[in-house]
Records
---
Amino acid sequence: MPLNVYLSGEIHTDWREKIIEGAKGLDVTFASPVTDHAASDDCGVAILGAEPDKYWHDHKGAMVNAIRTRKGIAGADIVVVRFGEKYRQWNAAFDAGYAAALGKSLIILQQPEHDHALKEVDAAALAVAREPAQVVDILRYVLTGSLPG
């Protein structure tokens, strides 16, 4: 039973790479948003034309990025959303809500200090992991039934 997993959220650390590396050998396909911060911010104006107002600059980028995000989440069996330590990821919270609304299996990856702020997001998840390795262990268990050794 192959799994399609969408990796959403924080783009400033290597958590995605850790999950992808740890899942080698499992029947998993990964997708994610564009993780090049500058490209993600500027895609709308680079493709659709410049905007003098920062609001519209960001709005165009958000709309273009949403095409990829919606496709990735809709096609996923599991959505993993990472909330990082340094930045507020409002888009990650939106992705978690969108995935929950679509009935996707949702795994949240966050540090304990975010527990209170993310209590509603966590309540919609099927698992709240603290480390990328725990996400890999969940994927392995779902696919093979085996527990971490």
---
Amino acid sequence: MTEDASLREETPDDHQAIGELLLAAFGQSGEVALVDALRKEGDLAFGAVAIVDGLIVGYAALSRMRAPFPALGLGPVAVAAAYRRKGVAGALVRRSLTQAQNDRWRAIFVLGDSAFYGRFGFRPELAAGFRSPYSGPHFMALALNGELPAKNGTVDYAPAFGRLGA
């Protein structure tokens, strides 16, 4: 990661800048509304920001999931265009995984690119036994603090995800 960046947990003072970053990164307001709803509904477990020269250049969110054990969903993850391919997203993911492990969560699920998320240990085969509206080859899981407590059941992201794009 660019050596001038620092990582920390988001604060309420960061919310506007995070919204602007998400809007620029995704080109639509859906992810801004998603993160706002996750906060408002109490489903945002952790939000990490990457800061360079006082500006938020990256963001990663972990939200509570409905699952047969304590689990989180990773996303959205966003990085400002000028800081992409410099390790910012990877650093944010690692910071988020460490926080989830320290907080004793049992798993994290993600819907995304297996080439990217596979570097952190996410595996589609770990998620394959779970029923979810997001099931498929891009739906992956990562066990934390040991093995997954169950290998099947129903998992779903927080209700705000169901409203994304609605």
---
Amino acid sequence: MGTLYLVRHGQASLGEDDYDKLSELGRRQSLRLGQYFAAKGLQFEAVLTGSLERHAQTWDHIQSGMAGTDTLAPTLTPQIWTGLNEYDSEAVIASVHAGPHARPVTPEAYREHFRLLRQGLQQWAKGAVAPQGMPLYSDFVQGISAALDHVRSQHSGNVLLVSSGGPIATAVAHVLGAGAESFVELNMRLRNTAVSELAFNPKRHALLTFNTLPHLDAPQLANWISYA
């Protein structure tokens, strides 16, 4: 039986012109996770990522941490799966909110952003809205389940999957056989560089852990915990 480690990317750049890059904290979170994996003696026979920049940067820093360095020196080439890319949060919000909304750079704007995002995701999962440029939710699920099927059919050891909150929450909901809307609540709880584990064999996946931060489990790292 193998173990699939699903890792959400490090903190990205919410509120900036380009969200799809790690913040300084996101880089430190990712490097620290790699150091934790190294201390555990973990090795991966394969790595799967989405094609977003924050996925690639997270993996680069994890790998650097595993190598015992803070410089990027990738040696294991990830398999790129576009089905592991995140939904378009702006398109989701626009599907339930006409007109512009404030950039989430203040606590009030941050709360409003995620209130609208939750509402939009719930409607998308139900099939009640079709965010511009996005697939149906059923097709989004299919892209993620295809990656899970590939892991089951091609691997038998430790596999790392680096993605975003939406795909990871969808994967967990899919494995649990939960309803489509369950992914919204799972998604909203996922923390940056959180680790979820699925045991797998050729027939199925089974949930072992969800949304854990063992690499940040120290008092001096409490302020490294983030959600966006």
---
Amino acid sequence: MAITSTETPTHGVEITAAAAAKVKSLLEQEGRDDLRLRLSVQPGGCSGLVYQLYFDERTLDGDAIRDFDGVEVVIDKMSVPYLDGATIDFSDTIEKQGFTVDNPNAQSTCSCGDSFC
């Protein structure tokens, strides 16, 4: 007899304290507690793949979810292998502001910094 699991898959992506705090702040500004931070990999850009990072109220079949002290990070099942070990960070400096993804699986990136392979 096969045993089926209803447990939600997890992923190997991390989120820094700065990024988690920014996500919480943005969700509080929106007055929404039903949104998750979704990270995915899509075809495009100079090097072949681009990151997409956005708030999503949906969960899709096969999504991998991790909760970081109230911040849920969701990754679709096709993106999980590309993102294993990646870290989502947030910078707020004069030089740079916004979310970044540090991905050890990216073999190369393009000069614009928006895509990888």
